[in-house]
Amino acid sequence: MPKPDCPPLLTAGIHRMTLPELEQLAVSPFPDDDQRQRLFLLFQQWVSNLQTKYVSAILWIDGSYLTSKFAPDDIDRIMWNPSFTVPLSDMEKQQVLPLIDRVGVGARFGIDFYMESPEPSQKLGREAYWRGLFGFQHDGKGAKGFVELSI
Q1: How many CB atoms lie within 10 A of CB 123?
Q2: pLDDT digit string, tens, across residues 23-35
Q3: Judging by beta carbons within 10 Å of its beta carbon (0-12, 13-18, 19+), is residue 141 exposed, middle or buried?
Q4: DSSP of 82-141, one letter per residue?
Q5: What is the H or E stretch that residue 50 is in?
Q6: Rounded to the nearest 10 degrees, how much is the dihedral formed by the CA atoms of 111, 63, 65, 58?
Q7: Is residue 140 within 8 Å of residue 8, measured between CB atoms?
C-alpha cells in the first residue's frame, strides 16, 4: 500500500527557485511547524558549507517537505553534477566528502540525499527517472511539482 499523500505545494513541473523563495514556499506558511524551520536551517547550513568549499551544482528538492504535511521527516534532494568553481588541492577535496556522503548528510542535515553525475549518453535517462519519481505522488498518478535550486 502506498504512503498517504498530503496536498503538494507546487503544481506539476520543475520550479526554479532561490533559497529565500523556497523558504517562502515551504516554511513561512507553516509558522507552528518547528520541524520545517529546523530542516530549512539545516539545509541552509549544508548549502553554505558546500559553497564555502567552492562546490557548485543543481539541486532538485522534493518529498513531503514540498507538501502540506506537518513536521516532515527530511527533505529529499538530488545533487546533479557537482563541480568545483576553483581548483582545489586533494586535501581540500577530501574535506568535501562528508558533505556528499549519503548517510552522513542524512544524519547531520536531515537530508534524504542522492547524487547523480551521469555520462552525457545517460543524462536524459537519469533525469527522466528522477522526474518520474519526484513528479508524482506516491500513488503514481497525481502529478506534483518540485524545486530546482542552483548553488
Answers
A1: 14
A2: 999 999 999 999 9
A3: exposed
A4: EEESS---HHHHHHHHHHH-HHHHHHHH-EEEEEE---HHHHHHHHHHHHHHHTB-TTS-
A5: helix 34-52
A6: 60
A7: no
pLDDT at 3: 77
C-alpha 91/C-alpha 108 separation (Å) is 22
Closest to 78 in 3D by CA, of 120, 135, 24: 135
Residues linked to residue 76 through DSSP beta bridges, in sequence order: 62, 112
Where do we find the cell 539545516? Answer: 42
Phi, psi of 41 (to 5 degrees): -65, -40
Query: Which 8-state DSSP code applies to residue 49?
Result: H
DSSP class of residue 122 equals: H
Residue 32's SS3 state is: coil
Question: For residue range 106-146, what is the model confidence (pLDDT) as tens digits?
Answer: 999 999 999 999 999 999 999 999 999 999 998 888 999 99
Q: Are 66 and 146 in contact (CB under 8 A)?
A: yes
Q: CA angle at residue 42 from 74 to 36, to 5 degrees?
A: 50
